[in-house]
Amino acid sequence: MKFNGTWPETLSILRHGQSAGNVARDLAESKSSDVIEIEFRDVDVPLSELGHHQAQAIGQWYAEQPAHKRPTIILSSPYKRALQTAEEVSKAINVEVVFDERLREREFGVLDRLTSRGIRAKFPMEAELRARLGKFYYRPPGGESWTDVLLRLRSVLDSLARDYADQRVLLVCHSVVILCLRYLFETMTEEQVLRLEREVDVANCSLTTYRFEGKKGTAGQPILETFNFVAPLKDSHERVTSEPDRQ
Fold it and tell me: What pTM does this model have?
């Protein structure tokens, strides 16, 4: 995919560390529960203790990189788990964090806090509709489809070109946002991005990195350099987790 205008020198995308919501979801699934028991609204779900350690490991890894390899700006989803991850990196390399609500998690509407089993039990017609339409286009009542997420991310690309040209940008966000950004940058089809989602679990605190190839200040070609990169966690002997968000 070709982009007109100026672009960041590099764009790195970091999934948040393991969250209390990831842990609660795993517990609910293991017990075959209908409901994910967690006291927070989704925007306020914090990192787990392991999630903090994972975020600190990424921050330390960046601090050990040459200065020209470190981010110069961090844009973060305002959801607490993402913000806490961004703050750990920011402390390690002394870089500003800017909130961007367009990087937030997909909104689940009436299906919030329900497991797949719970959705089938409480909203069987929605479960049937989701199965028929597929997750790419299905929008739960009060929530978002993947295509809704893509609409807000397209405006993020405009902001990157306008406000952060020639910088090294780190986005801190959520797994579905990472997959949707790959869809945009690599001109994927619905089938391709959903196959990627089925085949690869985006790990907590994994890095996806693009560089822009082309004459500086003109159209650039985004080149995928890393995807699901977790070497910083392994080097720090932190456990790698890939609990999916409720996509």
Answer: 0.93
